[in-house]
Amino acid sequence: MVMKDYLELFERIGRLKSTDREGWKRVGIEDVESVADHSFRSAFIGLVLGERSGLDTDKIVKMLLLHDLAEVETGDITPHEGISKKEKRALEKGALEDLFDPIEEKEGLIELWDEFETGQSMEAKVARDIDTLEMILQAVEYQEEYPEKDLSEFIEEKEKGFETSQIENLVENLTYG
């Protein structure tokens, strides 16, 4: 392991700061958040809510920081692009394996990402719900900023339900419109 491998990884991950969240662009939002913006707020929500839940907060935050890292290589693939969930997962896992290849923490990071993707643990369920909560929060904020845009498809994600009552309660208390 060489320190320059870590520096290269950190530089590559920095590209998330300029990787747009494509779903917002698709509906006509001009100045969209980056993947890094989304990941940061998701991780912070995980930090606060993890502490309240009695679960492994460290694991929740790590999952939230990892779950979109593959987008450094794949871009933000949305459900509207005609790529199946299985194919998207394979593309993202391959991108992560490439991204983490030179570092010794690779296997553990990939395992955490897999756990998030499959929702294998309560921490993964909470992290997945937080990911959706953050997107709904962003939709509400954009709806206020762009009242002429129809962002109902994002806000209505709440109708699909949540695996954790804590997140469901938060979303039920959101005010918008």
SSE arrangement, N to C: HHHHHHHHHH
Number of helices: 10
| Fraction of residues in helix | 55-70%
Named at the architecture level, the CATH assignment is Orthogonal Bundle
Globally, the shape reads globular
Query: How would you classify the helix and strand content by structural class?
Result: mainly alpha
Strand content: under 5%
**What is the C-alpha radius of gyration, as a whole number of Å?**
16 Å
Q: What is the overall pLDDT average?
A: 92
Major sheet = none
- What is the third-level CATH name, the topology? Hypothetical protein af1432
Please identify the top-level CATH class.
Answer: Mainly Alpha
Total domains: 1
Strands, helices and their partners?
Blueprint: H1 3-13, H2 22-26, H3 35-53, H4 57-66, H5 71-74, H6 85-100, H7 106-118, H8 122-145, H9 152-155, H10 165-172
Structure in a nutshell:
With 177 residues, the protein is an all-alpha fold. Helices cover 64% and strands 0% of the residues. It has a single domain, classed as Hypothetical protein af1432, CATH 1.10.3210.10.
Commentary on this structure:
The chain is mainly alpha-helical. It has one domain (3-172): Hypothetical protein af1432, CATH 1.10.3210. It contains ten helices and no strands. The longest helix is centred in the C-terminal third of the chain and has 24 residues, at 122-145. The protein is globular, with a radius of gyration of 16 Å. The N and C termini lie far apart (52 Å). The model has no long low-confidence stretch (mean pLDDT 92).
